[in-house]
Amino acid sequence: GSSLLVGVPEPGIDQVIAEVERVRGLVRSSRVLLGEEARMEALPAAGRFRYLHFAAHARFRGDNPLFSGLK
Questions:
Q1: pTM of the predicted model, to two decimals?
Q2: What is the Cα Rg of the chain in Å?
Q3: What is the model's pLDDT at position 66?
C-alpha cells in the first residue's frame, strides 16, 4: 500500500526535510506533504496507509494527554 510522509520544518527542528527525504528513500509509493503543503486541509480525512510518518513539533499535555497533538 501507499504511505504518507508529512514534514513541517520549524526553528529548532532543522532536519525535517532531510528526515522526510530519508524515509522517502526507504518507503516506496509515498505521498509527501512538506512545508506549506502540510496543512490539516491537505491530510486525507480517511484512507489506508502502510506507513504514516510525521516530522514536526508536538505538544504534550501532561494534565490531559488526550489534548496532546502535533503543532
A1: 0.82
A2: 13
A3: 96
